[in-house]
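stuck on this:

***
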Amino acid sequence: MKKVSIVVPCFNEEENVVPLSAAIIEEFRTQLPAYDYEIIFIDNDSKDQTRTLLRELCAGNPKIKAIFNAKNFGQFNSPYYGLLQATGDCAILLAADFQDPVEMIHKFVHGWEEGYKIVIGIKTKSKESKLMYFLRGCYYKTIKKLSDVEQIEQFTGFGLYDKKFIGVLKELDDPTPFLRGVVAELGFRRKEIPYTQPQRRAGKTSNNWYRLFDAAMLSITSYTKAGIRIATILGIISCCVSLVVAVVYLILKLLNWDNFQAGMTPILIAVCLLGSVQIFFIGMIGEYILSINSRVMRRPLVVEEERINFDGEKEETSGKTSSETEKGNG
């Protein structure tokens, strides 16, 4: 019997984890009765009752597993790390807030049985804020045009990944992984299934403007050279324009020494313009340096505080790093 792992990252999802686990189990009972399953909740240091409810779920069903992170390791590391812990023949990454429809699970599995190693969901419509959906669309199109590698529009990471691709993820050893980019760059032949994204079922999303900006910067610094190239090109253009203006002013002054008054206005305009351009691109270069720094430090993806219902492993794994966990699972 083939086994499907469902990986669910969560943070302050006390209103969703219980109904979500019930919905997943019902999906397997009605749509995929020939498959075994495991549900892996990876909690990113929730401050509400999420962990208490996960303990109860794990106690009532050995197929439900939980990993409790020692702290919040961000919106990218935790889901990526959760996929690495999957023991099934394939793994499906699913959001805890019901915005990734549970009824897509059997469609993903059927696509997988057709021979695709990766089956992903592509948002064609969304019941979230129209403004947010529009801005996301603009972001995806911009990244797609700027990137050196293929980028997938309206793809959030929601999808099925064969264990061979999970093996690729383990070999990457990237401390700041961007799953959406990895799927596009290194993924096998994939199938894309369109879906309409529903509204969040309950609770409040943790995705604020800062987190969205963080996601944008990670994708830009990981998969594009555009920021540095634009800085270089604009720097050359600004230098040439400044040189031409300086020569013109010098000629005009020499020809009309007594009558030509340059004044402070053009100087202020030039200083403000060049200063703002420099500050912007110093910030952009700083983002690239920050990305490089994160990778050079080689920190673990997450540090576990506890894991439950993982057979053959200690329940208490305080201080375990990602590399140590992978050795234990091997």
Q: What stands out?
A: Residues 44 and 72 are 5 Å apart (CA to CA). Confidence is low (pLDDT under 50) at residues 314-330. The two ends are 21 Å apart (CA to CA).
